[in-house]
Specification:
With 418 residues, the chain is α/β, with parallel strands linked by helices. 38% of the residues lie in helices and 16% in strands. Helix 3 (74-81) links the parallel strand 2 (63-67) and strand 3. The N and C termini lie far apart (61 Å).
Length: 418
């Protein structure tokens, strides 16, 4: 009955469009070239939520999502609260600080601990993010960015939290940062973020934004039986007289994940600096430098475990467009339309922002000109110029609105014009 009613409504609307004389122009929408499968219409917040469920299944862990309501991230909590039959636990905390504290506690207890927020909440969560860096526990922090500063424009989009995600914690507290490019891509990004958090025992920030959160597109339902196995073993007693909670895996530099209450694995946790290997509280200057550098090397080493930067390039292109996050659709369409006008251009889009793909410097230096469109005042631009010493230029928009295709197209034509 529902299908029949919708079919009648669709045909009625089509016939009205065909017979009315109110419109001077008509448009033809060509069939989409999509991979065969079953599709659903999904928003970015929905696919983030479903990606977390998929990540928990792939990790064989219970999921705990703890957050405080905030625009435009609240729908993630609302979506997950409907999925209790899938083993999802949700908790609406009294404030942002409590929300991340609960999520970190869940990670300590052997759950996939996740918290979500927007810019103002990220500021409040920063102390506990530093605690997660110190305790080296797998925690996911989802930041659905909005226009700031302060409460700014809560319903408008922006990408101005990147530098806060990179550096917005006290002390030397590096952690991985990933960015979602579209609603359909969010599911896989959340699984990848969980994989990194679990394998390397580190908190991970995932950046979305208001445009992605509330946009919708067709999303192909995945085969849940073919999700990657991202599970990691918990620590077990090894016969030693005392458990060493900071003895690291030589490949990943991850410390063991010891469930509380396991006999023989009693150890100290907290925010005070840890003695290497033993985990005892230490105030020794040399040990502090050693531990800071260890944590830094652990995050930097993730570059060897992520894909290299892929470039969509025309032969002879001398301009490279580098984007991240929700600039993807406007850059993609702008490049396509500029090519139709004869421009030769290359395009690359970053999912991994910390650490960068290991070949990114080589890619950037392969082009005489690099353009970085961002919905901020030049966050990624600063990082690329500082890290790789390339003379990149920015294209910056802070109107609470995403880029339009024509804006990207015209900038490309301006920069490729003889």
């Amino acid at each position: 009955a529902v299908v029949a009613a919708n079919t009648v409504a669709f045909r009625t609307g089509y016939n009205f469009g065909e017979t009315t004389e109110q419109f001077r122009h008509t448009y033809q929408v060509k069939p989409a070239r999509l991979q065969p499968g079953t599709y659903t219409n999904a928003t970015g917040n929905q696919t983030v939520a479903w990606g977390l469920v998929g990540a928990a299944r792939a990790a064989r862990l219970p999921l705990l999502y703890s957050s405080y309501p905030i625009t435009p991230a609240s729908d993630i909590l609302q979506e997950l609260s409907r999925l209790q039959k899938l083993g999802v636990r949700t908790f609406q905390a009294e404030d942002e600080i409590a929300a991340i504290g609960v999520a970190l506690g869940a990670a300590f207890a052997g759950h996939l601990g996740v918290t979500g927020t927007s810019g103002p909440g990220m500021a409040l969560k920063s102390e506990t993010m530093s605690l997660a860096v110190m305790t080296e526990l797998p925690l996911l922090i989802v930041d659905v960015q909005r226009a700031g500063p302060s409460t700014g424009m809560p319903t408008k989009t922006e990408q101005a939290d990147l530098l806060m995600a990179m550096y917005g914690r006290h002390g030397e507290a590096p952690l991985p940062v990933l960015a979602v490019a579209s609603p359909a891509e969010a599911f896989d990004t959340m699984i990848e973020a969980a994989r990194i958090a679990l394998k390397y025992m580190t908190p991970v920030v995932v950046l979305s934004d208001g445009y992605i959160a509330n946009s919708a597109e067709p999303w192909r339902l995945p085969d849940l039986d073919h999700l990657p196995d991202i599970s990691v073993p918990f620590a077990a007693p090894d016969g030693e007289a005392k458990f060493m909670p900071y003895r690291r895996d030589p490949g990943t530099l991850a410390r063991p994940w010891a469930l509380p209450g396991t006999p023989g694995l009693e150890h100290r946790v907290g925010g005070l600096e840890k003695e290497d290997v033993t985990g005892e509280v230490s105030h020794r200057p040399a040990n502090h430098q050693h531990m800071v550098e260890l944590r830094e090397r652990k995050v930097a080493g993730i570059a060897d475990d992520i894909p290299e930067m892929r470039v969509d390039a025309d032969d002879g292109a001398e301009l490279l467009i580098v984007g991240w996050g929700s600039t993807h659709p406007a850059i993609f369409a702008g490049v396509r339309q500029a090519r139709a006008r004869g421009a030769k251009v290359a395009r690359a889009h970053l999912r991994y922002l910390s650490p960068f793909p290991r070949n990114l410097g080589e890619v950037l230096r392969s082009y005489p000109r690099v353009l970085v469109p961002e919905l901020n005042r030049g966050h990624l631009l600063r990082l690329l110029r500082a890290e790789f010493l390339v003379d990149a230029v920015g294209m910056n928009k802070v109107q609470g609105m995403p880029f339009k295709t024509i804006e990207i197209e015209e900038k490309i034509m301006e920069m490729t014009r003889p």
